[in-house]
Amino acid sequence: MQKGQIKNKSVEQLLVEIESLKQQLLDRENEKSDLEILLETTTEHSTNIEAELHNTNEQMSRYLQQVYSITNAAAAVEAGTFQSHTLDEVANRSDELGRLARVFQRMTEQIKTREEKLKQQVEQLRIEIEINQRLNAENSSMAAKLEVTRELQQMLLPKEQELRQIAGLEISGFMEPADEMGGDYYDVLNHEGLVKIGIGDVSGHGLESGVLMLMVQTAVRTLLTSNETDSTKFLNVLNRTIYDNVQRMRSDKNVTLALLDYQEGRLRLSGQHEEMIVVRSGGHLEQIDTIDLGFPLGLQADIAVFVAQTEVQLHPGDVVVLYTDGIIEAEDILGRQYGLKRLCELVKLNWRRSADKIKQTVIDDVKGHIGKQKVYDDITMLVLKQK
């Protein structure tokens, strides 16, 4: 304000202007104070925001690390190196990430359990495969041995040409084992005019029974060629041979055996076996029990006291049937046995036919009775017909 202007104003005006200036100064002071307060507040807020941002960054960093932990865990599972405890920190969270980690832990534990179980199953399967392979190899070896023994057994059966050379008799035989090896025995041996006919049954069937049957055949032939004609001595020596071998084998097998000496129409029968069927010319049927004619071979060392014999005179057209229990005990699908009565009736009806026809008729009837039922025992039959 210039001096001329001040002189021209009154005191009141000056006072008013002075008050106005004072007010302006005061307002500026207030504005300055407000600015200082605003600056201070802004600075404080900025500091809080920075702290919050720092905390948020740290939380986000931990969150991302824990997310990475789950990602790394998934890779570890794939690599087979996962350890469940590596997710314990994440699993302690109460949010969705923690829930995800807990689910992942449970899932991987279940997978691990299943993998262990699968490994055990695979190992068990491997062991079973190895066992099966060994068993197959052993079975193949056993089958080969059985086949050789079976062939030997069949080779030792009397041939048709031999049977046709027996003077005075038509003879027809049949043997069919239940397994690869049969335990049944029949033979027809001709030595210096004496015909030795045998039929027997080793208990059970299979390799052991088949081998024992071969022993019987060999021993019978040996005794016959040694000119042993006494029935008691013949059976007792045969029994001792079988008994000693059974003891060595530590076996519980035994043999029922009937031996017939045939010469010029006369039969001498000794040994314990099934009943002998005789159908006379004209159809009259006789059943000869052998229970008191011997004792099963191989059960005790000496059976001489049990051995006896009976004689049967044959006339032209008479038929003799020898058989093992595989025929009369053959079962149909309902478990019904063929039976001795049915066998006797069938032979009686067919006595006029040849020995071979009679044999075949019986075998066909027995097999028809069995049908599709499993055959449990060897089937053996020998038919003699006096010429």
Walk me through what this model shows:
The protein is of the alpha+beta class and 387 residues long. It has 10 helices and 10 strands. A 5-stranded antiparallel β-sheet has the order 1-10-9-6-7. A 5-stranded antiparallel β-sheet has the order 2-3-4-5-8, with helices on one face. A hairpin with a 5-residue loop joins strand 6 and strand 7. Helix 2 (11-79) runs parallel beside helix 4 (96-155) and helix 4 packs parallel to helix 6. The longest helix has 69 residues, at 11-79. It is rod-shaped, with a radius of gyration of 55 Å. It starts with a helix and ends with a strand.
**What is the tally of beta strands?**
10
Whole-number radius of gyration?
Answer: 55 Å
Backbone structural class? alpha+beta
Sheet-strand content, in percent, reads 15-25%
Morphology = rod-shaped
- Which H/E pattern describes the elements? HHHHHEEEHHEEEEEEHHHE
Q: Distance N terminus to C terminus?
A: 179 Å
Mean pLDDT: 84
Give me a quick take on this structure.
The chain has 387 residues and is α+β, with helices and mostly antiparallel strands.
Give the secondary structure arrangement, pairings included:
Layout: H1 3-7, H2 11-79, H3 88-91, H4 96-155, H5 160-164, E1 169-176, E2 184-191, E3 194-202, H6 207-225, H7 231-249, E4 255-263, E5 266-270, E6 276-279, E7 285-288, E8 309-313, E9 319-323, H8 325-328, H9 340-349, H10 355-370, E10 379-386
Antiparallel strand pairs: 1-10, 2-3, 3-4, 4-5, 5-8, 6-7, 6-9, 9-10
Helix pairs in contact: 2-4, 4-6, 6-7
